[in-house]
Amino acid sequence: MPLLLLAGCSPRVATSFWKIGTEADSLRAGYTVIHAEGKTRHCYPITQWEDSADVDTYHQLHHHGVAVESELMAYRLYFDKKQTIDVYCKRKPQLELAQSYWYPNDSLLAEGYGDDILRVSGTVGVGSVKYWDGTKQVHINAGRRAQYIADKTRHQASIGMLVKDWQVEGQSEEMAVQYTLFAGHRDMRCDVYTTHPIEGLCTGVQTIPAKGGKDTVTIVLPNGILLASWGTDWPVNDTVKYGKETVGLGVFIPKEFAETPVHDKQNNLCLLKEEKKLYTLYKKRYFYSYYTAHFYLTVCGATKENHPVATSAEEWLEYLRRWAKTLR
Question: Nearest CA to 250 among 325, 320, 301, 328?
């Protein structure tokens, strides 16, 4: 959809992925000292990281996982069983994570930097991939997992999560979930790849707040299923320094990948329907099949952005309807 940028702001994307180390890592390329969450961290950039389920990788990575940003939005992918997408919204169109590292200090906030706008807790957040157990969404409990930056250019970047040894539906599963963000966009595309078909895969949007939110909608369109959420909540546990944020969430699943809408107390969801693909590497004559689905997610920070695309649930739903018409 058309994007109006501030004068002098050209469309770009960037990634942010930091391993927390010690002063002994000071000779590593890109090493820096980050002050965030009341702590001083000695960090260095990485492009991938893999660990086992018995290691607390969530707290070994700065901002707890890989992140990607455009001028309008930043998203991080939690490195744990939740593997939930969280949202950082911009007041004005610009890249910020190289300065704020997801946690802007007081001086950056005074300069008009954005911030985290959504408390996802144990929900689906917006566009996270979960499993439906028949009554509720559950997290992905896998034996091994890895995160990575798949590719990055000036205009496009992809980040992802790979899980291995996930025991689900009577089989050991491998699954890759990859998110792609384009310059000038607030929305992302998500591609899901599995080695076997999984009937319980789902995605969707949380209620806002996670406990007690009610303003969620499911709409069946000619080209797919649209899931929408709108609400107001504190974005973090600090309710003194930070005010409440009003946020709109949207997920669109194209018709060929949309199965059945479902919901629980905190989430508005849709089951995903995968299709079989054949991958061929001709030089090595290597062939294998995998199963895939894709969908799209988008966010509006109604009280954070200087010029939001919507300021009410009705405006947000109208925006999402127009957005969904452009997607395949």
Answer: 320
Strand partners, 159: 149, 179
Give per-residue pLDDT as tens, 88-99: 999 999 999 999
H/E run at residue 225: strand 224-233
CB 17 within 8 A of CB 69: no
224, amino acid identity? G
- Percent of the chain whose pLDDT exceeds 70: 94
Three state DSSP letters for 24-78: HHCCCCCCEEEEECCEEEEEEECCEEEEECCCCHHHCEEEEEEEEECCCEEEEEE
Q: How far apart are CA 231 and CA 118, in angstroms?
A: 10
Could you tell me which of 55, 89, 53, 51 has the C-alpha nearest to residue 72?
Answer: 89
Using CA atoms of 189, 48, 69, 256 in order, give the dihedral in degrees to the nearest 10: 0
For 213, the token pair is 């939110």
β-partners of residue 298 are 250
Q: What is the DSSP letter of 106?
A: H
Rounded CA-CA distance 289/283 in Å is 17
The dihedral of CA 138, 49, 272, 143: what is its sign?
negative
Report DSSP state, residue 316: H
The answer to whether the CB of 247 falls within 8 A of the CB of 117 is: yes
Q: Is the distance from CB of 9 to CB of 306 less than 8 angstroms? A: no
The encoded tokens of residue 241 equal 């320094």
Domains (ranges, CATH) in the chain?
A: 14-325 (2.70.98)
Q: How confident is the model at residue 206 (pLDDT cuts 50, 70, 90)?
A: very high
Give residue-wise pLDDT tens across range 244-278: 999 999 999 999 999 999 999 999 999 999 999 98
Q: Which two tokens stand for residue 308?
A: 């939001």
What residues contact 325, with CB distance under 8 A and at least 6 apart? 221, 223
SS3 assignment, position 297 = strand
